[in-house]
Please model this.
Amino acid sequence: MSNDKSSRRSFLKASALTVGALSAAV
Model:
């Protein structure tokens, strides 16, 4: 995978958004 770095970046971004959403929901 040559775009592993960008893929990981997107994953981290999604994770941050998910965590933020869960924090706001609680």
